[in-house]
Every structure is written in C-alpha cells, then in structure tokens.
Amino acid sequence: MSIERTPMCREVILLFTIFTYVFIEFYLYSSSWFVDVYGEGKSIPTLTTFLIPVLFLFLEIKLILYAFLCILFSLFLVYFGNLYIITLIKVVFISCFGLFFKKEKVIIALMFSVLFSLMFAMVCVSFFGDLNQKEYYPHKGLVPTFGFLNPNTTAYIIFFLFQVAVLFFSIYLSREKLFFLVVFSSPLFLSLLLYVESRTQIINFFLFIFLLFYFRFVGFKNYRVATCLLFSLCVAPFVLIYLYVVGDSFVYDLNLLLAQRIQHSANIFLLEAFPPLISGFDVAEYLPLDIFIVRYLYQGGLVLILSLVFVSFKVLRNVNIYGSDVDYFIYASVISTWAVGLTESYIFTVPFNFVLFFFFLTERQSSYVKT
C-alpha cells in the first residue's frame, strides 16, 4: 500500500504512536524516580526501539526497509563497541518521517505526541516520584526540577515545547499572527525558565527569539548570515581550547565563568590527541564534557561530527535554494541548537533535535522541486 494513498488520519496516528513511544522513553529515563529504581544508564534495548514501530508499519514497505537498515546499523555499531552513536540513530529514525510524510502531518503528530508524552511522564512522576523535587547547587541553593534529574533537563524540555508550539502554529497562522503569538507567549515560557534557574536555556531562549525576529523581519542576506554563524559555532570550541592551552588570560577567565568546560575539553585533546574515525570510546573518565562537538568527536567519532556539520549546512542550503514558509524558524533553530552546544552536550539527543528533522523535511521539498 502506498504511503500517499493512506488516509491522513491513519498517517497522523501512526506518527503520533512512534513519536510518543520515543518521547516517553526519554522522559522516563530523565526522571529521578526511574533512575533511582532502575539505575542510571539503563534503557529499553535499542532494537526494541526500532522493532515496535515496525509493528505499525507492516504495510509500508519503504519504512520497513528503513527500520531494518537501522537495526543492521545498530548491530554493526554494537559489534564495534560504539554504543553511544545509537542515540543518534534514534534521532535519525524519528526525524526521517519528514522524508516519507507531508510536513503538516509530521508537525501535527509531533505537537500532540510531545504534549501527551509529557503529561504521561508528569503523571508517572506525581505517583512514583516528587513533582516538588529540588536539587541543591552551591551557587543557586535549592532549584526545582519537577521530578527530572536536573534543572537543565527540565529547562530544555520547556524550551523544546515552546519550539514545537511555534512550529505547529506556523501551519495555521500567517507570519504576522505567528509573530504576535510568539510575543505574547514568550513571557510565560521565560517565567518557567527563570523558575528553574537554568542560565543556559534562558540565554538560548533570548537568542532564539532574537534570531526569529532577525531572520523574519530584517531578512538581510539570511543564508549568508546563518552560514557564517554556523561556521563560527563549529570552529569556536577548538579556538577556545587552543587559546586556553597557550595560556590566554581572557579564555582562562571565560573557562571559570563556564564552570571549567573549556579545561575539561582541553584535557581530552591533550591526552587522547587525534579523535577516532568511526568507533569512538567511553569518555566517562573525562567527564564532565559539556561542549557537544568535543564530546561526540571522541564518543561518536570524526565521521559522526562531520556528518552532523554537513547536514546542518545542507539544511541552510536547502532552505535558501528551494524556500520554505518557515524558513526563518529553520534558520533560528539550527543556529540556536549549535549555540547551546557550546555549553551542553545533549542537544542532539531525543527529542531535542530539529536539525535532522529539518534536513529530511527540506530534502523532501527539494526532491519535489527537482522533479
């Protein structure tokens, strides 16, 4: 049965089921009570993540083939010892539906699955954990986490919900009405971020809003500006590490401000030298490694990082060439994602990923334009 001939309702339900499964898995393993009971690092076997969606795709030959290839690739990575890149495969798996389904169907399913899975997680936390849970930090005191492992995870979930909401309403509202929605809803989400006291996500929130307005209303050479910003964000960690190693006083002070993130990243470069090509290795002894590109350069391999950089630039190029009714949102999301990667290493995990999601959506659009 062809995907294009299936009713829209069936396709949305199919996508909703898959997204909800993956999001609930993430929310549960990010909650304190679940980790206390089952232990940190425990997870539903990766193959199950791919096999369960296949049960809902038994009539869709293309997707069955894709899921099967994901399983084979997972076995390949497990055999060669790279267990960490499997998280990326999950992201690719749920993001790829932008290639098989129309954008509107994917976004509708994404919005409702995010809301449903988050409510499900909150109910679980209220019954088995503590929604009033707080973590103590020497420089902040007691900080609320709403039952999750730390306030940064809670803050990023709030920010992710804001992004999905903006993307969802972009389907139904004009750019002007969407602008007013962003303006009036921003204080609500910002107040939640201030409540959990996550400096990283507060800065990222303001950056995202600024980029939205710039790419939407200024519109001066958007593609060139976005490309330059993305290149700078990819190169910046290595420049900072180099300056730290040679003893630059400004970078040394910046390292203290960033809770020694630059120092930790410099240590793994000095001790391990050239990163692995494909296999990656366990970086537990070098933790915390909060600069994304550095951590996954060694944990996932050089090929992984180069692939993610290529995909990010390809998204910007696709939007510039083939256009998009949410081009400003795509530009802002890609740049803000890499920006927060300067201080956080979880930006390409499920569900905090729009780069690959947009890659498949824009690839689908470009294929239609070419044909």
Percent of residues in helices comes to over 70%
C-alpha-based Rg, rounded: 20 Å
Largest sheet: 2 strands, antiparallel
Strand order of the largest sheet: 1-2
- Structural class computed from helices and strand pairing: mainly alpha
**Roughly how many Å apart are the termini?**
23 Å
What percent of residues are in strands?
A: under 5%
Total beta strand runs: 2
Low-confidence stretches: 1-6, 41-49
Instruction: Report the order of strands and helices.
Output: HHHHHHHEEHHHHHHHHHH
Q: What is the molecular shape? A: globular
Mean pLDDT: 77
Count of alpha/pi helices: 17
Domain module tally: 3
What are the key terms here?
2% strand; 371 residues; globular; mainly alpha; two-stranded antiparallel ribbon; 3 domains; single chain
Task: Please explain how this structure is put together.
The protein is mainly alpha-helical and 371 residues long. The protein has three domains: 1-131, no CATH class; 136-217; 219-371, no CATH class. The chain has 17 helices and two strands. It has a two-stranded antiparallel sheet. Strand 1 (134-137) and strand 2 form a beta hairpin. Helix 3 (46-55) runs antiparallel to helix 4 and helix 11 (222-245) packs across helix 13 (261-272). The radius of gyration is 20 Å and the shape is globular. The chain starts with 7 loop residues before the first helix and ends with a helix. Mean pLDDT is 77; it is low at 1-6 and 41-49.
